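So, can you check?
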Amino acid sequence: MRTYSIFAPAFAAALGMATVIPDTGKASDLPSLPNGFFSGVNHANGSSTLSFEATGEVLTFKPSHDQVRVQKRTPPFGHTDCWTFQPELNHAGVDAGVAAFRNRLSFSGFDLGHDAGPAYYGFNNDGVYVYFCYNTKAIARGTVEMEDLDFATYWTDVDCGPYKPGFFQWDSPLLFGKTLSGTAVCLGS
């Protein structure tokens, strides 16, 4: 179970209501992706390139666009969208991704940004992406902090469910999401 520094009571209730549904979603044309942190960039032809930190492996593939967005309520300072193309994500994959970001952010934030087209930074584990990006085609840069992770995981867990795919986007282009590996993310819309 994941821990949340400032929202623990609300999560206890939300996690207690979660039901387990088998992972049946598959992304099309997806290569075998290694577990670990990656940086990604989307190309004009619809393909994505991921560079994995630990292995140095670089993969380019056509991500899946099989998703239906359902906008949920609007929390303060942003909005949450839930994707209904897959009922539930692999629990270990989601938990490992959030824990990896929590560990990375435990000492200081990390810089995120791009000069041309939406780029993203995430953690892939057991078929799940957990990621941050600036979801805009304009130049965007900033620092992601632990408070960003806490705020975004709180709203995606409350509105979508702790293991359901979806994202939280602040009023700025900064976005946090969790979804099936190989799903098209951070398209700049």
Remarks:
- The radius of gyration is 15 Å.
- DSSP finds three helices and eleven strands in the chain.
- Residues 1-28 have pLDDT under 50 and may be disordered.
